Automatic annotation (TrEMBL), chains A, B:
The keyword DNA-binding applies. Residues 16-76 form the HTH tetR-type domain. InterPro entries: Homeodomain-like_sf, HTH-type_TetR-like_transc_reg, HTH_TetR, Tet_transcr_reg_TetR-rel_C_sf, TetR_C_16. Keywords: DNA-binding. This is TetR family transcriptional regulator. SUPFAM superfamilies: Homeodomain-like, Tetracyclin repressor-like, C-terminal domain. Residues 39-58 bind DNA. One of its GO terms (molecular function) is transcription cis-regulatory region binding. PANTHER family: HTH-TYPE TRANSCRIPTIONAL REGULATOR RUTR, TRANSCRIPTIONAL REGULATORY PROTEIN.
């Protein structure tokens, strides 16, 4: 692992310490400037490290955000996992399964719910999340699948709404339905949003 | 308007004062016992008034809850408005229009968002809301339209998720779409949930 070059005299902080300082600065900058307004260079300057080190630790701005927000999954992973399906007819099933994989696992559900709650009650978090989802999920998905953005959003809306009823409110019978029942219920709806009209 | 009979000596409180006292007691009881556990009789006893007076003011437990939570619309109104459509083929359009009518009006959107935010961050509010929605929206809708509850929930999930993306996160282009574009986008999806498979 590269050791941090802070350009400051005195004790050299260890990699973990430096990583944490970068994340703390990133959280502050993202909250102040939004996802679009904060840059990897700006975060590095704030943390008094070389931008190359931030890149080395996190791969890029998206990776810094995912780590800073303790986001359980990188949207790029979701897009590429859904893109693995061979035919366009199976996009609905692939998206339903990928979404449920993430939500059914408490280790990823808990931080996702935390982010969703913050976005609902804090305007700054809502702005950050909007810009992040736009840049890392909607734009790549639109380009990869050539589906109009509003239709991708309608599909994501279907999934988020069901997640709220199932995991937050616990409304029956959707709260106790099996994963496969949910895939059967939702996949054709998602597919309809993706099919040409 | 009937004057309240509190059965207590001293100054007779006016109707507004009594109404507010009933609502304060109702809020406390609903939070403590949930929607199902609180009764109109229990609320009346807590507020030291005759149950007939609570009935006179609010029509019933559902009405007390709607007023106590400052709910902008009684779910019974939504069910009966959607039920007004002549044919089952038009349920999707009717539900999309009715839902958007409520959300597009800031006077009802603001309190709805407040309830949604509380339900997402407070387990007791989530329980109250779950029981309330179950008793006043899901059960009547299932009986009126003879649609399996899980399908009604999938449709409500579609609408709630889109409301979050449009009104809370402000994700484009769904945030700036016209009401009619949204009806066109969502009505066929809702209808698909309602059609027999």
């Amino acid at each position: 692992m590269a050791s941090p070059r802070t350009g400051r005299p005195g004790r050299r902080p260890g990699p973990t310490e430096t990583r944490e300082r970068i994340l703390a600065c990133a959280r502050r900058l993202f909250a102040e400037k939004g996802y679009d307004g904060a840059s990897l260079r700006g975060i590095a300057r704030e943390a008094e490290v070389d931008p190359a080190l931030v890149h080395h630790f996190f791969g890029g701005k998206q990776g810094v955000f995912v780590a800073a927000m303790e986001f359980p999954i990188d949207p790029a992973v979701i897009v590429s996992r859904v893109a693995e399906v061979g035919s366009r007819d199976e996009l609905g099933v692939a998206l339903a399964r990928t979404f449920l994989d993430v939500w059914e696992d408490p280790a990823s559900r808990t931080p996702l719910l935390a982010v969703l709650r913050s976005a609902m009650t804090n305007e700054r978090v809502a702005t950050m999340m909007r810009q992040f989802v736009q840049a890392t999920l909607l734009t790549p998905a639109t380009e990869t699948f050539r589906i109009p953005p509003i239709r991708i959003e309608a599909a994501i809306g279907q999934l988020i709404g069901v997640a709220m009823l199932r995991y937050v409110l616990g409304v029956e019978p959707i709260a106790s339905a099996t994963r496969e029942e949910l895939v059967e219920l939702l996949a054709p709806t998602l597919q309809r949003h993706f099919d040409e009209v």
